[in-house]
Amino acid sequence: MVELSAVGLAERVASLPLIDHHVHGAFTGELGRAAFEVHLNEGSPDPVPAWMTQFDSQLGFAVRRWCAPLLDLPAHAPADAYWARRTELGVVDVTRRLLRAAGVSDWLVDTGHAAGAVLDPAGVATASGGVAHEIVRLESLAEQLAADGVPGREYADEFGSRLSLATRTAVGVKSVIAYRSGFTVDLSRPGPREVADAARRWVDAGGGRLVDTGLLRHGRHAAVGTGLPLQIHTGLGDRDLDLHRANPVLLLDLLRLPAVAAVPVLLLHCYPYHREAAYLAQAFPNVHMDVGLALNHVGVRSREVLAESVELAPFAKLLYSSDAWGPPELHHLGAVLWRRAVTATFGAWVDDGDWSLADAERVAAMMGRGNAERVYRLA
Question: Could you tell me how far CA 231 lies from the centroid of its own chain?
Answer without folding.
Answer: 9
